[in-house]
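Before relying on records like the one below, remember that each one covers exactly one chain. Contacts with other chains, cofactors or solvent are not represented anywhere in the record.
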Amino acid sequence: MLDRVLSRKRLLELVDELAHARRIVGPVKQNDHYFYEPVDRADRLDLDFSYCVYGPKAFLLPPTQTLFRFKQHAGTFETTPEHNDEPLGIIGVHPCDVNAIRLLDHAFANTHPDEHYLTRRRQTFIVGIDCPGPCTEGVFCGDMHGNEATTGFDVMCYPLSRDDTGGDVRYGVVFGTDAGREFILYAQAGDPPSVEDERAFERYQIEKQAAFPQQIPYGVDTLPDLLERSYDSLLWQATARRCYSCGSCNLSCPTCYCFNMFDEQELALGTGERKREWDGCQLRSFAEVAGGHNFREAPASRLRHRIYRKAKWVKEREGIAGCVGCARCDRACTAKISSVEIYNQLAEER
């Protein structure tokens, strides 16, 4: 059920008002590609974008981040944690990226809560824009259920129609949080949905369901069991012969959250910073330990590890799929290795 109906023009006006209190990030076109970038005004956002090359993860989990500073004092070290609590608004987030953020929320909140991530996340306001169909060729978000977001946003906007001139979009709006409700209603923006609006929303959902083709014929729910039976498949070795172990798939993935930590010290060694940076399981050094031992020396074992994390292990541990089907990894892969092809070839073997 819809909570409100709103024009795009009015939505952008609300975003401009939001910019007085928050840093605004959203899809910006650069050389025929879209990227999530900070903007100073809402009219720089392109809400008709197909997909962004990278997800918005970097604004919540920066590629390099200082965790705390330390200095030597009286024979020991004093530490000062560093948290970024700058209010942030991420606008135009597609369902796949909403679900990716939901996985990050779960991973960094459970077992060992990470206050560096959670501080940023608590200060983040998300306005989603739903996808009526696949954003580009090769995506398999429909198979991974990443094309539908029911939580993880403050406001989700469904593009129901355009006006008679083909210009302004009319959005059906669903509130995800109290903050999202206040964002719309405090400004007295939009209108209550009419019966016709609700019918248009029902038609939209039916047409959307039909628009996403099935790429994995055996269904995503079968993947954990399929992988359980495919650990020793020769396919890993055959596919990994093309893999450069460059880590492009890890860096472009919106759900990868592995990191490495290191210290940077000043020359006098009395002060410094502890930092973390993104790491990737496809890099040869990822599983290397003291003494030069490596638990995943072969590219095939690293490829298998990534696929198992995305389709099996993360789901079993977090209860949320580790892959949202955005296919950024496939597009970024210099060797053109396809996750869908791997799943389907393993299914054919079995």
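The radius of gyration is 22 Å.
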